[in-house]
Structures are given as structure tokens and as C-alpha cells.
Specification:
Layout: E1 18-24, E2 34-37, H1 44-50, E3 56-60, E4 64-68, E5 86-87, E6 90-94, E7 100-105, E8 127-134, E9 146-148, H2 155-164, E10 169-173, E11 177-181, E12 190-191, E13 199-200, E14 203-207, E15 213-219
Antiparallel strand pairs: 1-7, 2-4, 3-4, 3-7, 5-6, 8-12, 8-15, 9-11, 10-11, 10-15, 13-14
Length: 220
């Protein structure tokens, strides 16, 4: 089951194409059809033109353009704030971010994506609150994938980011930080919920941990 991140997206200036949002990169690249790098003149239009004949194209790190017809396994919707770098050829447009693609395509529907296997038995459908926990001693309590979003972090956003990254445990810390893992580090200790009282940056009515404190959940 695919879990899309329910995150607000700031849509940059577009032309005839569809903007799908900000997507993660993977070690083997999310789009592997063709590549154009130009950090001084890159625009959304330049990338679209270069990728003529492909159904998908994405811009990364201000000046990199990638083309393809499908996403590689492990690429999935990320936090909109992860894509915040201006294009080298037009500072009013957004060209992805570090290891993040501003993804476009020819279809009105977003492309299918295949998350990393999460290692659980069967399909997980819900999350369960575990409690407020300290960070590990000298290590992260959850040492898998991580993400930071100063304006869009929510419990559901962190939940889906971690599940798509292949992890069933996730924790939110200090308003804007999301950490994923397979289990809590043994040096992480359960504390009172009062120590996890900071509002989430993307949902002030939700709680996203505290200073060195994680609001911990598990997919079940």
C-alpha cells in the first residue's frame, strides 16, 4: 500500500507540464533516462525541453535536470520544504534541493512509486503512539532516515516519510525534526508526556516532541 505524504506544496511557475511535488532521490537516481547539468542557466523550461520524449523530468540542486519514464524504487513524495533551491537561470523558479527533485511530467496523475520494503509482516494500516522518549546516549534513539521541515512537519508527514523509507518506528522532535528506525536504541528512556510538548511546525495542534525528546510512534 502506498502512503502519500499529505503535505502542502508550493507550486512553482509552470507551463504545459504537471508539477507533482518534491520527491526523494535514491542511490541509483530516481530518474535514469538522461541528464543535463547547468548551474548558471537551468530553468524548468530548459529541463522540460531537454527531456522531450520522456514522461517525467526533475530538477535538483539548482542546476541538475534528470529525465525518465518511471521512478526508481525508493523515490517517493517528500516534504515540500525540501525543495527550496532557486534555479540557476531563474531565481523565481524552484529547482529541487540536495538529493531532492522538483518533479514534473506529462500526465495529470502523479507517477506510481515503490517505497522501500519496511520489513513488517503483512500490510500496516495505522500508527500507534508509544510515548515520549529521550534521545540515545551518544547516538540517535532512532538512527535510520531523517528529515527536517521548518514549516510543514506533521505526525502523518513523518509517519509516511518513515514508512516509505522502510521503517516502522518514527519519532518527532523539537517541532520540525522527524527520525525513523527499526527500534529504539537501548539507551533511550521513556519519560513523562509533559516533556514532549512542542507543537509541530506544520500543525500547531499536534505535538512534535521537545528538546532532545521524541514523540515516538510505531506503524502496526
Amino acid at each position: 500500500m502506498q502512503h502519500l505524504l499529505a503535505l502542502a506544496a508550493v507550486v512553482p511557475a509552470v507551463f504545459a507540464q504537471t508539477f507533482y511535488g518534491c520527491y526523494t532521490e535514491v542511490p541509483t537516481r530516481a530518474l535514469t533516462g538522461s541528464l543535463l547539468v547547468n548551474y548558471t542557466t537551468m530553468t524548468v523550461t530548459e529541463c522540460e525541453t531537454h527531456c522531450t520524449g520522456f514522461s517525467l523530468w526533475g530538477l535538483e540542486y539548482g542546476g541538475e535536470c534528470y529525465c525518465g519514464d518511471s521512478l526508481s524504487q525508493g523515490s517517493f513524495p517528500a516534504f515540500s520544504t525540501d525543495c527550496a533551491m532557486p534555479c540557476g537561470g531563474d531565481a523565481t523558479q524552484i529547482c529541487g534541493g540536495p538529493n531532492r527533485l522538483s518533479l514534473y511530467g506529462t500526465s495529470e496523475e502523479p507517477p506510481a512509486f515503490t517505497p522501500y520494503p519496511h520489513g513488517g509482516e503483512g500490510e500496516v494500516t495505522a500508527t500507534e503512539y508509544v510515548g515520549c522518549y529521550t534521545e540515545g546516549v551518544g547516538v540517535r534513539a532512532l538512527s535510520g532516515a531523517s528529515a527536517v521541515s521548518a514549516s510543514a512537519m506533521t505526525v502523518d508527514g513523518c509517519a509516511n516519510f518513515c514508512l516509505n523509507s522502510g521503517f516502522l518506528w518514527f519519532g518527532l522532535e523539537y517541532t520540525a525534526e522527524c527520525y525513523c528506525g527499526s527500534a529504539l536504541d537501548v539507551t533511550s528512556a521513556n519519560v513523562t508526556d509533559a516533556e514532549c510538548a512542542m507543537p509541530c511546525s506544520g500543525a500547531p495542534t499536534e505535538v512534535c516532541g521537545g528538546p532532545d525528546r521524541l514523540s515516538v510512534y510505531q506503524w502496526i
